[in-house]
């Protein structure tokens, strides 16, 4: 790789700080890529909220994430933040965007190549923009989460900082749900599994769908068997993992990647996940957890959960979902882009 | 003017069709500028929704306005629409934007000069973007609606197509409110004036603030003295003007321009307007209506409404707020920009 003479701009979202204090998967991954590249000697500028924490050069035009600062208009902040990176494009050999379709609309106005990591398609309504810019450079975060017709250079799995999620040898007794409180994440299904199995369920995460929380979750909370503890930071996650017999992730729509599955596995916690979308790429059935198709199956495999070796879970994360493996992947993608651009210009 | 060899892109909003079927002041003005320029021989490309009606070249990437098509995501449509114009920038000598702060964020990525007509500052939260791009080219739609520090080249008053609002010699008997149903527009104050004066009030316009309509307007509607007839098109407006003794426009925040005041005056209808913002630029007190400071004053001046000569109202519109006067204004601004750009490059 030609690191020393290449300058990379990483364009992180500004919903949250990079890295986020609690929730914020896209910002987490953008941070891990940035810090991983810096550790390998790359010259990286991180475009993120002003309170972000990085060893890269930080360039910020918005002080705080718009989800953390009610005085900020998200639309205004996003336009200001994204355009700023493109106005600085001449200083970089590559802009690596994590800012979805919005950043794509600036990509043809600069000469610097733009790589977009697609962290997920929030709705079919955004596809017209992806299709317009389909000849750009794209990375998917799982093989399953791809739109047809886009110029994907690779799938690069998200990687976590394993030092944040130390291996915990002793397994706990509870079931754990960790994620956005939203029907997509199947919190109600996790509750059903807890009831069927007679195990305690601890639910953690931000409430993204208030109606869902009020109508389908709240009435089940009893401070004893079904608990909701709100959003948690890294420390809180590790405390949850210590109490976890298994992580329940019964998503009702195809998962795009599933960072929390990897975090749980890193700590040695087996994952029971719905076999939808990326879950079968992240979880190895019978080795790092179980893939299931419904609540009954999820309850059934709980009886076999002791078959899962926590160390095998961690090793699989080290080998596939670490910052190192992710940065390896992106270095290959960057190299491909620099080669293609070099040829295009010569 | 050097019309023949200059190509202008007019970037209209895509909330509604250009021109709009009913409500849509920004699209109305963008349309009037476009058609006025075309009538004078300019080569104009209108960037607007695909169903727009124009004698200019129409360039559209979104079929219908996002307010008229529930399948469209407004954010996606706006990014797609605005960036398209900037990607085509090389074809134009000037981009004349009516797309607020969003379009500004693309302006430094192209060589083509960008003129922004500021149709109003929707909130102080958008000012950081205006301040960042303060050295661009700006036009205000009234002297009163200006932010400090921006490079304003002129105030160009909005102009209407007078042929759409023919003069009506006979005055009606009712009070008329025409505009968005929103507290900013003082519909509740118009109702108070109707009560005080014992006159009938006809309210027309889109309900923009549902809570306001439900809590402060609806209970007053009685199908007899206070009527709400929904949004109206040009034909509906003229029917209202035929019934109007006066138009009530008791805005509670500074008006930015007030297109409906001009439309009413064009038809010969006097306007009673709150003396806030642009109203004193649009209405000449005692000649084309009355400027008031409260409901009591509004009710009082109704007793003097016959002093207002409908023909004087129309003449003032012809002389100050017609498509012709507006296009005169913009031609002067364009000329200034071409001179400045020419000097910058030489």
What does this molecule look like?
The structure is a homodimer of 346-residue chains. A 7-stranded parallel β-sheet of chain A has the order 3-2-1-4-5-6-7, with helices on both faces. In chain A, α1 crosses α12, α2 runs parallel beside α3 and α5 packs across α10 (295-301). In chain A, α4 (127-132) links the parallel β5 and β6. The first copy, chain A, has 346 residues and is of the alpha/beta class. Chain A has helices at residues 25-39, 74-87, 100-107, 127-132, 187-197, 210-217, 234-243, 259-266, 279-282, 295-301, 310-320, 323-345, and strands spanning 7-11, 43-47, 57-59, 94-97, 114-118, 137-140, 152-155, 174-178, 201-204, 226-228, 244-249, 271-274, 289-292. Chain A contains 12 helices and 13 strands. Chains A and B meet through α2, α3 and α4 of A and α2, α3 and α4 of B.
| Most residues in contact, chain pair and counts | A-B, 25 and 25 residues
Discrete helix count of chain A: 12
Cα distance spanning the termini of chain A: 20 Å
Query: What is the H/E string of chain A?
Result: EHEEHEHEHEEEHEHEHEHEHEHHH
Q: What descriptors fit this protein?
A:
homodimer; 346 residues; alpha/beta; globular
Structure in a nutshell:
The longest helix of chain A is centred in the C-terminal third of the chain and has 23 residues, at 323-345. Chain A has helices at residues 25-39, 74-87, 100-107, 127-132, 187-197, 210-217, 234-243, 259-266, 279-282, 295-301, 310-320, 323-345; strands at residues 7-11, 43-47, 57-59, 94-97, 114-118, 137-140, 152-155, 174-178, 201-204, 226-228, 244-249, 271-274, 289-292. Helices cover 36% and strands 16% of the residues of chain A.
